[in-house]
Predict the 3D structure of the following.
Amino acid sequence: MNMENTAMDKALVPKDYKSDIKPIWCPGCGDFAVLNAITKALAFLELPREQAAFITGIGCSSRIAAYTSLYGFHGVHGRALALAAGLKAARKDLTVLVAGGDGDGLSIGGNHFIHACRRNMDLTYVMMDNEVYGMTKGQASPTTGADWSKSKLTPQGSGIRPLRPASLALTAGATFIARGFTGDPNGLARILVEAIRHPGFAFVQALSPCPTFRPEQMEWKRMVRGFEQETTSDPMEAARRIHADDGMSIGVIYRSDYPALQPGSGGVGDPRATLDAIESEFRI
């Protein structure tokens, strides 16, 4: 028996998708559950590690790529989706996962988020939303409520209405929109399986409590519940559900079969062909 082939043929389990680097998140952080949910989803899909890449930005949540055994790139603040789009354009064969937080994705990265939704490339974006800037000591983020007054920078609240990530994704053109909760890691894993399988831009908002700067969020486990309705493909109905909800309902909200952008076959030129053309001009 060829032991090497046997080892290669052995089915991967969730821990096989984790690296030897131990997470340094605060005890109780919801991001631990996101890591577990992602590795469970990858194991369920039996995705070879060399066929996937994990791109992240900056922040507590964006450390997650280092904790997996996939190819990864820890980018600069807010630019994870731009990097991921470039990778997917060049390597259409790869499954490209992207992760970040509400600050990284909706503040400095907000414009990239909007255009990633509208381009509808085959990417899966997990936004770990704790409604606070955790790594920089607890400032209000784009999803923080206007009246949150626990930050020293906004002791009377910011007075700014928070963004609704699912609503923004729908308006911008994402073709898969879901919300999960880290207190239900198995449910979040099931959502991620659907998101990764979706042939287009899949956005998953993961409600991920921050016990250090937002300890009141530990009550989310008593507030979350599943959406009462089945997933819809009607954007008007999806908009109605999102705006009628308090942000605590979880599940797949919207799914559309609008075709994904395929660089090299449509509005965007094949980057490899372009590179070859440029190089040919300099050949002697």
